[in-house]
Write a structure and sequence with these properties.
Layout (H helix, E strand, L loop, with lengths): L1 E10 L5 E4 L1 H11 L4 E7 L4 E6 L3 H14 L17 H10 L2 E7 L2 E2 L6 E6 L5 E10 L1
Antiparallel strand pairs: 1-8, 2-7, 3-5, 3-8, 4-7, 5-6
Bound molecules: zinc ion (ZN).
Length: 138
């Protein structure tokens, strides 16, 4: 069995953003030489997500409004976590949007369903963050 590991790094200049990372994950898969197996992609921070959905800007705007309604950033004093920091809402947004995704690898390609793309979800940006890509198979 072959195994491949890579860390992707992101710096998002805003507090919240969604980035399509499918091209980077595809590049990792090609580098790995693995034709049959599994890809795991996970955020390495507890205020960021990796998830799969549609690459459609209206949907991403809807996510932002929905997440802000569920866990508003302001007022920061509404959260007990915010003693010495202000990112309680980012922890909650990450919980809803998830930590990781697993994608099947078939004949050397990411075996997606219709319209599926992989996204990095940032909820407490303006600093360097990492995403882990782990691929196993043969
Ligand atoms: Zn925190």
């Amino acid at each position: 069995m072959k195994s491949y590991r890579k860390e992707l790094t992101f710096y998002v200049p805003t507090r919240m953003a969604f980035i399509n990372i499918t091209p980077q994950v595809n590049e990792c898969l090609k580098d790995s030489g693995i034709r049959e197996g599994l890809v795991l992609v996970n955020a390495m921070h507890i205020t960021a997500s990796v998830f799969i959905n549609d690459d459609e800007s209206g949907l991403h705007h809807d996510y932002e409004l929905w997440l802000e309604k569920l866990a508003p950033h302001e007022p920061v004093s509404q959260y007990q976590h915010n003693v010495g920091e202000d990112n309680a809402d980012a922890h909650m947004k990450r919980q809803i949007m998830g930590r990781e995704v697993v994608i099947a690898v078939t004949e050397g390609n990411l075996d997606f369903g219709t319209w599926e793309q992989i996204f990095y979800g940032e909820f407490d940006g303006r600093r360097k963050k990492r995403v882990l890509v782990k691929i196993i198979g043969e």
